[in-house]
Specification:
Elements lengths: L1 E4 H17 L3 H13 L3 H20 L9 E9 L2 E4 L3 H15 L23 E7 L4 E8 L1 H4 L3 E5 L4 H16 L7 E9 L1 H11 L11 H14 L15 E11 L4 E8 L6 E4 L1
Parallel strand pairs: 1-3, 2-4, 7-8
Antiparallel strand pairs: 2-5, 5-10, 6-9, 7-9
Helix pairs in contact: 1-4, 2-3
Length: 280
């Protein structure tokens, strides 16, 4: 049994909040660089260059990539040989979010009630998903989710008879309706299967997978590639300026589902697709 002090979790989360909001991941940066070479529109090439310039300034000055520093979302894997001493892990994470967003001068975007709309002043509480695994480590994945993109995400309970064509049609329709609002080029997470809530969770978690890694199932890897190609023919382009770079990647996750259902969720992210991972 390994004992971990809750303060260690809090300090780690604090640093993750600042890191993810100020430093673009290398896979995203490379994808934007490659898109500049492939993009057909000169105007959109300029937009992509400006996105890289913005990311470089944010990195050097350690300031947010975007003013919307998001709602704090965590995927946490807890080893079965771990004992956390002090606060509960949920309290430790929320303390870390509070410290990260206040000490890092990140915008506080969370309201305590969806209708009363009173700001919590420290971006808590976080949205946390837990998995329990073998081992004596804690793996923390943090993904701040801005709502310019979150608001354009969608869920649909398809009929099994809708099949693959129904899934493709729903994904394309969701991206088409999103248009320029999610600050494209987008990264698109798709969850297929499970229940309504499981599909939505998978779609969001898919956005934390490196865009250099395709789904391990060849069928879904091929579907990711085909969807990306089709989406980039929609003509939305970087920041809605037209061109051939509407999305950088499509990541799909799946789960077994009921014989009577075909849940599909599409979670859209902006070009930055901020996330970071730490293991304690």
């Amino acid at each position: 049994m390994r004992i971990i002090q809750s303060d260690k979790i809090t300090d780690t989360v604090r640093d993750m909040c600042i890191k993810a909001n100020c430093h673009i991941n290398s896979d995203i940066k490379l994808a934007i660089e490659n898109s500049i070479q492939a993009e057909k529109s000169d105007i959109s090439k300029g937009v992509l260059r400006n996105l890289l310039k913005n990311a470089d300034i944010a990195h050097r000055k350690e300031v947010p990539i975007c003013q919307d520093t998001g709602m704090a979302v965590f995927f946490i894997e807890i080893g079965n040989e771990i004992f956390i001493e002090g606060d509960t892990i949920t309290d430790a994470v929320n303390k870390g979010v509070s410290k990260g967003y206040t000490e890092g001068y990140l915008r506080k975007s969370v309201v305590s009630d969806p209708l009363n709309r009173i700001n919590t002043q420290d971006n808590t509480p976080a949205v946390i998903y837990y998995d329990f695994v073998q081992g004596d480590n804690i793996k923390i994945t943090f993904a701040p989710k801005g709502f310019g993109s979150e608001n354009k995400s969608a869920l649909k309970m398809l009929n099994p008879s809708d099949g693959l064509d129904g899934v493709i049609s729903f994904v394309l329709d969701t991206v088409r309706k999103a248009g320029a609002n999610p600050c494209p080029p987008m990264v698109i997470g798709i969850g297929i299967g499970g229940t309504m809530d499981k599909a939505a969770q998978m779609a969001k978690k898919a956005l934390t997978r490196s865009i250099t890694i395709q789904n391990g199932n060849p069928f879904y890897a091929d579907l990711e590639s085909k969807l990306l190609s089709t989406i980039n023919k929609l003509g939305i382009g970087p920041q809605g300026m037209g061109g051939t770079t509407t999305a950088l990647a499509v990541n799909i996750e799946t789960y077994p589902t009921h014989i009577a259902g075909l849940p599909v969720a599409v979670n859209i992210n902006c070009h930055a697709t901020r996330h970071t991972v730490e293991i304690i």
